Amino acid sequence: MAIVLGTPGVGGLDAAVGALREWQDDGAPMQLHPGDLGWFLRFGAEATGTAVRTWSRDGRIVAVGLLDGAALLRVTVAPDVRRDEELARRMAEDVADPGRGVLGEGQVYVEAPTGSLVQDLLTEAGWRPDEPWTPLRRDLREPVGDPGVRIEVVGPERAEARAAVQRAAFDRSTFTPERWRAMAAGSSYADARCLLAYDDRGDAVAAVTVWSAGPGRPGLIEPMGVHRDHRGLGFGVAITVAGAAALREMGSSSVIVCTRSANVGAVATYTSAGMRPGPEVRDRRRDA
């Protein structure tokens, strides 16, 4: 049966998230996670539904993509069709043709799992490797340990503090309490947790949001940040450890994250928190 490209809208978000949950596995390469859609929901359900693309065959979703900005498609495919030629060729054609409503003209990027046929086909078509990213993972079968600082779970009453730390950790962040509430209202957040770390003076100094994909599956850190005035004091390691402990409580098999290899501070922080770096991965880039 023909492969159908679709934009699910608000009504199809749960189906896309459900497919992504099923595809998460500790043996799989780094790939789009339901938490990526959950974090995007800070922009609202309508914007998220518009940013998602699905490829379906015979009524079954076999690939899910997220337009993380106008020029970047983050996409993954079901494990049993990762090397399916018909699907890969259709996806490669869809992302290459601006008329199909996925990516526009000019310089654009595709993030696809290492070893997927669609990544190979894009390379053959002249898409070039972009900057390297480092995936990191920590096994959660063993207890995580105490982060060593006070940790609070964020609820509506802490949304302002959570948003403030986010903006102080990322220079271009537009995160607000309203966006936290939009994110928390999504169905994905039922399997997520926001945490704040506090210093000895009682100031919120670091934050993390972690996303479970269900028991026995890897959970995602997206995002983690330390207030710019409190860096270099170990709070990044502490909040990462706290996030790992929260995911273990939710039944996750591991905690994963992917960060730019050039961000050596982030790689060092995650490594110090017990995460092990894997082989670097690269998006595929089509130049204008």
TrEMBL record:
Residues 149-288 form the N-acetyltransferase domain. It comes from the Bacteria. Pfam families: Acetyltransf_1. SUPFAM superfamilies: Acyl-CoA N-acyltransferases (Nat). InterPro entries: Acyl_CoA_acyltransferase (IPR016181), GNAT_dom (IPR000182). PROSITE patterns: GNAT. Coiled coil: none annotated. This is GNAT family N-acetyltransferase. It comes from Streptantibioticus parmotrematis. The lineage of its organism: Bacteria, Bacillati, Actinomycetota, Actinomycetes, Kitasatosporales.
